[in-house]
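Data deposition worksheet. Section B asks for the primary sequence of the deposited chain exactly as it was used as input, without tags or linkers unless they were present during the calculation. Section C holds the resulting structure in token form. Section D is free text for depositor observations; keep each observation to a single sentence. Incomplete worksheets are returned to the depositor.
Section A, Depositor: J.P.
Section B:
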Amino acid sequence: MSDFWSSRTKKLEPYIPGEQPKDGSVFIKINTNECPYPPSPKVAEVIKNFSCDSLRLYPNPEAYDAKKTIADYYGLKIDEVFLGNGSDEVLAMAFAAFYDNEKTVNFADVTYSFYPVYCNMFDISFNYIPLLEDFSYDVEGFIKTVGGVVIANPNAPTSVAISLLDIERIVKNHKNDVVIIDEAYVDFGAESAIQLISKYDNLLIVQTMSKSRALAGMRIGFALGNKKLIEGMDRVKNSINSYTLDRLAIAVACAAIEDEEYFKEITGKIIKTREKTISSLKKLDFIILISSANFLFITNKNFEAKEFFEYLRKNGILVRYFNKPRLCDYLRVSIGTDEEMDVFIKITEAYCNEKF
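Section C:
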């Protein structure tokens, strides 16, 4: 540890992202839930025609054009939209805006591992609510608890969704606290809670353009909620960095949202490939959690997950392994193209043949 680190820095346990190859090795990369398809052709057109001269000027601090496009798309008002540099930043600002050490925030024991990182960073009290044995949410546990709530829907890394009815029950029972629904993967089969925003002023929805809009490299995230919640997040943003989205990102965000036809095309392809992959894995005795995401959470009682993970990597395929309680018997597998998943299945079959 550096002698110059603050006491807070010394206590932090940062989030660890999935492996990004650095040595020039070529992998089928299905470990970080990226979209296997390029962004909309309209995005490519925006980038091609973008005026580099404009980069000498600061972007609009409110990212007005992107806010209006998103608001119109979801039937909301502009003051009900917040934009940030990826949904991770948006979530961080939401945690800072709504939670502190005087009130506990509650999230699942198996969920996006950035949540406890934010809590430690901002000195927020937090509580784990264990998932049920089948990795579904303990809805009654969330309803009974006191304090804020954060739910990933569908959950990561499990891929399991929670119903809109259960989300509404949780929101209803936490009227004095902010409930955040992290919908990073919602476009692949879960039901969004955006329609509840008009009913509940304590509900904040966080989404990203990294997955279903194929813009992980651009870093565009947003939050939707009551204007008072958005105002609180703006206070945090403007105390840290007023210009969270650059000029190109604002233009690209508009183009991606406006191309509804392409959005439906690639999400549909990913869902179709997901179901095909599930069918193939079941023939090999894999147990797969019900997925509403662009990834699968899989296990096989015939061998250890870590050993299988290492075999796949040795054979040019990256998936995600979590060496943690309740997770260490599973692998998370992102959905790639049909061709990539065919290779994954072929290598998986070879491994199973060795073991059976």
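Section D:
The radius of gyration is 21 Å.
The longest helix spans residues 260-282.
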